[in-house]
Amino acid sequence: MLPSPPQTPQPPPAAAFRFSDTLCVATIGDCHLTDSTIQPLHFPKLQKLALKRVGISESSLHTMIAGCPALQCLLIYRSFGFGRLRINSINLRGICVKAYSYGRGLKFGELIIENAPFLGSLILSDRLHVSLIYAPKLEALGFLSSTCSSVLAFDSAVIQGLHVDSMTTAVRTIKILAVDMHALSLDVVLDLMRCFPSLEKLYIQSTGPGKSNCWRRKHRDLIRSLDIRLKTIVWRHYRGIKSHVDFATFFVLNAGVLELMTFEVNSEDYNEEFFAQHRKMLQVDNRASRGARFRFTSDWSYNHIMESSVHDLDPADPFERTCPSKENTNFVLCAGG
């Protein structure tokens, strides 16, 4: 976790940008970038830029990004001094934003993606209003959250927090989705799946007790009509309580192309007795996808990208684990073993 920033951010040293013409990766943090500092700068080769707890005006931020014609990855972490950011970039592949900035200066509240033809991933945190005007290749999206009511406006759908407020047509580009919900809700996830019908990977984080997720009668008609394309589900904080089991069995019994479902459990639940109980409770032997595997691990994985580096925006799936698992922390269930 990053330490608290200095009370009064100072400008960077005069020599900080002397290699700006050749930089490919830059992380700038805990400083104030004045208009006079930014105005003459140009980063012709910069591909990855992270601004962490940086004070910068809106005009200077736009000038800085415009001066990075090769920029592919942009991370803005708790920076301030600007209220709105407009993205017009033909090379940008990934954007990660954490807006909260310790209550100082002008708050970052609006992200407008006007023209980003190759943008593949968008990772958000805190309260933001995001307008997606042109991002035809956007495939990875997160973290949609029940605690931070960001508004995400597509051409044909509006999502506030975790709820689909309106939808005229489905958003078919999204294949990877990460959600953070306090109370686990199958209804909410199914609504998001209707909005994103091409979804192949789902990352879930849920720390609360969970709602009633009984589904057999309630979603009987939906099961016949919903085309579930999910191949991978990663679930952090799986506790094996009834609402969690009911939620999981919906996908065990109905996701016909599921390949891997990962349950990240507490270390005290990582034992043979827990695995045996859940083989039966999850009805693994009756699974819809005969090739599916069910993995239990105490080595929690999926990327807390907000506390990571700009390099984590590089993969096609920014939420996927990039470091190897620890030894003796994985157990895989399938019908044959």
Fold blueprint:
Elements: E1 25-33, H1 35-38, E2 48-56, H2 58-66, E3 73-77, E4 84-88, E5 94-98, E6 110-115, E7 121-125, E8 129-132, E9 140-145, E10 151-153, E11 157-160, E12 163-167, E13 176-180, H3 186-195, E14 201-205, H4 220-225, E15 232-236, H5 242-254, E16 260-264, H6 272-281, E17 293-297, E18 330-333
Parallel strand pairs: 1-2, 2-3, 3-5, 4-6, 5-7, 6-8, 7-9, 8-10, 9-13, 13-14, 14-15, 15-16, 16-17
Antiparallel strand pairs: 10-11, 11-12, 17-18
Describe the structure.
- Residues 5-204 form the F-box/LRR-repeat protein 15/At3g58940/PEG3-like LRR domain.
- This is FBD domain-containing protein.
- It comes from Triticum urartu (Red wild einkorn).
- InterPro entries: F-box_dom-containing, FBD, LRR_dom_sf, LRR_FXL15/At3g58940/PEG3-like.
- Pfam families: FBD, LRR_At5g56370.
- With 337 residues, this protein is an alpha/beta fold.
- The chain has 6 helices and 18 strands.
- It has helices at 35-38, 58-66, 186-195, 220-225, 242-254, 272-281; strands at residues 25-33, 48-56, 73-77, 84-88, 94-98, 110-115, 121-125, 129-132, 140-145, 151-153, 157-160, 163-167, 176-180, 201-205, 232-236, 260-264, 293-297, 330-333.
- Strands 1-2-3-5-7-9-13-14-15-16-17-18 form a 12-stranded mixed β-sheet. Strands 4-6-8-10-11-12 form a 6-stranded mixed β-sheet.
- Helix 5 links the parallel strand 15 and strand 16.
- The longest helix is centred in the last third of the chain and has 13 residues, at 242-254.
- The model has no long low-confidence stretch (mean pLDDT 87).
Largest sheet: 12 strands, mixed
Total beta-strand segments: 18
Q: So how many helices?
A: 6
From the N-terminal CA to the C-terminal CA, the straight-line distance is 40 Å
Name the average pLDDT. 87
Low-confidence stretches are: none
**What amount of the residues lies in strands?**
25-35%
Domain FBD: 222-263
Pfam family, one: FBD
Domain F-box/LRR-repeat protein 15/At3g58940/PEG3-like LRR: 5-204
Protein name: FBD domain-containing protein
